[in-house]
Amino acid sequence: MGAAILYVIATGRAGAEIGSFATNGFGAQSPGKYGLLAAAVTEVVLTFAFVTVILGVTDRHAEAARAAALLAIGLCLTLIHLISIPVTNTSVNQARSTAPALFVGGVALSQLWLFWVAPLIGGALAGIAYPLLGRKGRTGGFMIRFGRPAAAALAILSPALAAAQDVSVEFRLVAAPGNITGCIAADPQFTRVHTFTVKDGAAELTAPGGINSRMKLEKPGVYETDYRLGQFNLHVVADLNSRMLTVTDRNLGCTWTAKKE
To answer: pTM of the prediction?
Structure first.
């Protein structure tokens, strides 16, 4: 129903096209051009985490968590979208995948099978694993029914958690040993403090000398940008997962890197 309403609105203007209509996909249909395996793993793991959280906060043994069940589920789904939109456009729900695919047709329909199979596998694994996580152990003590599954789900989701938070990190770049003479002469422009910040979802890189460049989230925790500095055509990657900043000149191949401990 939701897809039908959006279709009517989107096509209500002369010459309008619906494009991909936010369909799920892999390969060329993936927003980040991720392949079949990456898409399958993403959907299975995130569906497993989502269903585990739902089971945890609605468990009759988790009375303390029940009052915040809707908030926990909503925040979990928000984080899942932040992680998986660049990979598959986020499914974890067969109905969400099927409706737009029916309107777009073509490749969207031919790839729809994955977004039925992967969530079924992820949900089934969560259904199997959750009772085991809450089973009485040989020591006689009961595991906390909500704590263990929730911790397991958060452990799965944590690598991209930093991408959803405001951050400010300072990097001091160091030239790569193999840089050619033309790049070594420019070291003073690069081997100074560069500050990477994310605030309210907007990321930018700043440094003395007039460097101020907005950065785009390319995949969970990884931001990239391109800008020119004099004769240099620079490509910048800020990886929050490994806390690395890499600056590469596309023309000469020179590189400057920094790792924040």
So the answer is: 0.52
